[in-house]
Design a protein that fits this description.
Blueprint: H1 5-8, E1 23-27, H2 56-68, E2 73-77, H3 87-95, E3 102-107, H4 112-121, E4 126-130, H5 136-143, H6 148-161, E5 165-172, H7 181-187, E6 194-199, H8 207-213, H9 218-226, E7 230-231, E8 242-245, E9 252-256, E10 269-272, E11 277-279, E12 288-289, H10 300-310
Parallel strand pairs: 1-2, 1-10, 2-3, 3-4, 4-5, 5-6, 6-9
Antiparallel strand pairs: 7-8, 8-9, 10-11, 11-12
Helix pairs in contact: 2-3, 2-10, 4-6
């Protein structure tokens, strides 16, 4: 193992604005088997000439480098990461890397009832499950799949498997699921899980959909505060959600509102796509290719130096307010 002390120096990875980065969202594939109306309404389509996804060994070298820079939380994303044939191997190897304290996954819940136990055994300690409606009919309309009951059973299976941090992700969609806000709040009343409402974000291919269905997160905040919910302090290493609790609810409610003022001020996460490009922002102008430095363990020092050097390019905030979503074609392309 190389001596990296002269490069890392025990300091955490940070940018020009003194934001520290302890959290990496790592896409394992851009392929998804759902056709959600806000992300892949026409289903997944492979880009002609697209490079192959990172190999397992390339992925492990990448995570080791970020762990050496103080990153301790890894979230496996996609597309749908669990359809990757090596998913369990990658998860178990990432969980075993020195410095990694939390391994999470974001999934659409595909085959979750039968797989939850294997996820826990692989070292996954947190899981986010996308569930955009509690109505079977609306769920099918949004995702083009009739799998709501399977996903709800999967949440129970995750609890039984001992996965402690379970979250349900719900994209706010005006005219589609905004009449279910109270139902979602009631859903967590007796369940020790967190439900997070996510404000719909504009991407390069959904501008018309965004105009029809975008709902401001302030509607959720107003509803929660009027019902006696209280905002919680931000936890160390937490994602972008503002969380709320209520004395009469076992579960919590979170809100991810990227159009809110100062949303980017607390940014603590970086992204790497399934082909090895470092994205400093979900809505940035492109990624920086790390793959050439993932070909050998002997290149780790150079890889770490490269990652540190790229942090100077991280901007203070996204430009969504001006209708600029960068080069992001859709959220599945780099893991959301």
């Amino acid at each position: 193992m190389q001596d990296l002390s002269n490069i890392v120096g025990g300091a955490e990875l940070q940018d020009r604005f003194s934001r520290r980065f302890q959290y990496l969202r790592l896409s394992l594939t851009d392929v998804c088997n759902f056709s959600c109306s806000y992300c892949l309404p026409g289903g997944y389509r492979k880009q002609k000439g697209a490079p192959p996804q990172l190999t397992v060994d390339e992925t492990i070298r990448l995570v080791r480098a970020f762990a050496a820079l103080g990153v301790w939380k890894i979230r496996l994303t996609g597309g749908e990461p669990t359809i990757r044939s090596e998913f369990l191997e990658i998860a178990s190897r990432v969980a075993a890397i020195d410095g990694i304290r939390k391994l999470a996954v974001t999934t659409n819940g595909y085959r979750l009832p039968e797989r939850a136990a294997s996820y826990a055994q692989a070292g996954i300690t947190a899981i986010n499950i996308s569930t955009d409606s509690l109505s079977s009919e609306k769920f099918r309309e949004i995702t083009k799949h009739d799998r709501l009951s399977e996903i709800l059973d999967g949440i129970t299976a995750c609890q039984q498997a001992g996965i402690k941090a379970i979250k349900v992700n719900t994209v706010l969609l005006k005219g589609l699921n905004d009449d279910e806000l109270a139902d979602f709040v009631a859903f967590v009343k007796d369940r020790p899980i967190s439900l997070r409402f996510i404000e719909l974000m504009r991407t390069n291919d959904n501008s018309a959909y965004f105009e029809r269905h975008h709902l401001s997160g302030t509607k959720v905040t107003d509803m929660l505060e009027a019902s006696g919910w209280h905002q919680l302090p931000r936890a160390i290493g937490a994602g972008p959600a503002v969380e709320f609790s209520h004395t009469h609810s076992v579960g919590r409610i979170g809100l991810i509102a990227p159009y809110s003022p100062d949303f980017c001020a607390s940014c603590n996460r970086l992204r790497v796509s399934a082909i090895g490009k470092l994205h400093l922002c979900l809505f940035g102008e492109g990624g920086y290719d790390l793959r050439p430095l993932l070909q050998s363990d002997s290149m780790e020092a150079e890889l770490i130096e490269r990652i540190c050097g790229l942090m100077v390019h991280k901007t203070p905030a996204h430009d969504l307010h001006n209708g600029n979503s960068g080069v992001t074609p859709h959220l599945a392309s780099i893991g959301g």
